[in-house]
Write a structure and sequence with these properties.
This protein is α/β, with parallel strands linked by helices. The chain is built from 13 helices and 13 strands. A hairpin with an 8-residue loop joins strand 10 and strand 11. The longest helix is centred in the last third of the chain and has 30 residues. The structure holds pyridoxal-5'-phosphate. Pyridoxal-5'-phosphate binds next to helix 4. It comes from Jingyaoa shaoxingensis.
Length: 427
């Protein structure tokens, strides 16, 4: 099919009539579908149900160091969980600190600590004469932007390229402005594009020369082992060791969790960083808690055993997720390919497909899909302050609906894209 922009006004109006007819038909099906949040499906959650059997009333609940996990204590996490999460984060055990059930919570706490107490002895960010700033690669994760917005941190958009953030811009800004204190990064199978950072990008991060001594890279490796394919996986360089080699050991905070490995909201979260950064975090944590949930840590280690166990488990997730991604991509390819009214990512892992509509169309497309009962992530959510300057990006989350629901939802989505795009071209 030729591109919509090449069609005459009459051809477009004819196409619009036909699409409106189809749209009415899907509306009559009274669908109620949700492609908005990156939640695992029930089938994926079932994969981890065995975790509920590895600890019961007859289990030995003592960890490797002899501590009874039913009681208070062990601030850093039990040794076997430290080993598992250190391996998952690709760092030595001395560089890992186990937290509670959510990495987002650790990120929030880390920013809160910097605001109130400062980073490694530097002036607390909230006590500076001007608001601090964060760089935000876009499109990105709405909840990252939510944290920095909550604390009144000014956010600066940086384009996310297929290789990672625009590093010319990052280097220029970070080295010249001491009020820039951080950058949000999802380096692997990023939310929402699914892209992974190139080796050059990681090395340029490791060699940054920030104007602020308390600048930190917030490296959220939420999708580190979340591949869709066995034989075609992204591999990224490990940033903490690259920072050490570059003489910048304190530059990065790495965040990780088992949310989308075991149970979201009931997993284990951890931070990996230099010993100086971890000591700084511990000073705060000492007042925050008498220890995190060690029974959950024990359950996870007894269930997965080691990284081999985790990788095997992730293959089962992939077997459920892969057909869903492929179903959505095949509808996009078949229905929108060649029309030149949108482009989309083809992730090899993670939880999202990123769709870029013609400028000025994203909000209208999301609203149109809603008219036919399909909920998409709010347009603009992938940008700081919910403002996509181009009104173009839409995040598609294919994980939660069943394959049949997804086929119906994708059909509504492409109809919405076509109808809104025709109106835009005819404007
Ligand atoms: N980081 C990213 C990039 C995510 O996409 C998500 C969930 O969608 C999270 C963090 C949430 O992680 P957690 O469940 O560990 O808080």
């Amino acid at each position: 099919m030729s591109g919509y922009k090449e069609m005459s006004k009459e051809q477009l109006l004819h196409e619009k009539d036909m699409l409106e007819q189809k749209f009415k038909e899907v509306q009559d099906r009274n669908l109620k579908l949700d492609m908005s949040r990156g939640k695992p499906s029930a089938a994926q959650l079932n994969l981890s149900n065995g975790m509920m059997d590895v600890l019961n009333s007859t289990s030995d609940m003592v960890c490797e160091s002899g501590v009874d996990c039913r009681n208070y204590g062990v601030m850093d996490g039990i040794p076997e969980a430290r080993k598992l999460l250190a391996d998952m984060s690709e760092v030595p055990e001395k560089n890992i600190l186990i937290y509670g059930n959510s990495s987002l919570n650790v990120m929030f706490d880390t920013v809160a600590r910097a605001m109130v107490m400062g980073v490694c002895g530097h002036t607390p960010w909230s006590k500076l004469d001007k608001p601090v700033k964060f760089l935000c690669p876009v499109p990105g994760y709405d909840r990252h932007f939510g944290i920095t917005e909550f604390f009144g941190i000014e956010m600066i958009n940086v384009p996310l390229l297929p290789t990672g953030p625009d590093m010319d811009m990052v280097e220029e800004l970070v080295s010249s402005d001491p009020y820039i204190k951080g950058i949000w990064c999802v380096p692997k199978y990023s939310n929402p594009t699914g892209n992974s950072y190139s080796d050059e990008t990681v090395l340029r991060f490791a060699h940054l020369k920030p104007a602020a001594p308390d600048f930190r890279i917030f490296w959220d490796n939420a999708y580190s082992i979340h591949h869709l394919y066995d034989d075609d996986q992204d591999v990224i360089l490990e940033l903490l060791s690259e920072c050490e080699k570059a003489g910048n050991p304190d530059l990065v905070y790495k965040f990780i969790s088992t949310s989308k490995v075991s149970f979201p909201g009931s997993g284990i979260a951890a931070m990996a960083a230099s010993e100086a950064n971890l000591a700084d975090a511990r000073r705060y944590m000492n007042y925050q808690t008498i220890g995190h949930d060690k029974l959950n840590q024990l359950r996870h280690v007894r269930f997965f055993k080691d990284m081999d166990g985790m990788h095997e488990h992730m293959k089962k997730h992939a077997a459920i997720l892969r057909p869903k991604f492929e179903a959505v991509l095949s509808v996009l390819d078949k229905e929108l390919g060649g029309l030149e009214i949108g482009s989309w990512s083809r992730p090899k892992g993670g939880y999202f497909i990123s769709f870029d509509a013609m400028p000025g169309c994203a909000k209208a497309i999301v609203a149109k899909a809603k008219e036919a009962g399909v909920i998409m992530t709010k347009a603009g959510a992938t940008y700081p302050y919910g403002k996509d300057p181009q009104d173009s990006n839409i995040r598609i989350a294919p994980s939660f609906p069943t394959p049949e629901e997804l086929a119906a939802a994708a059909e509504v989505f492409v109809l919405s894209v076509k109808l809104v795009s025709i109106d835009k071209i005819l404007e």
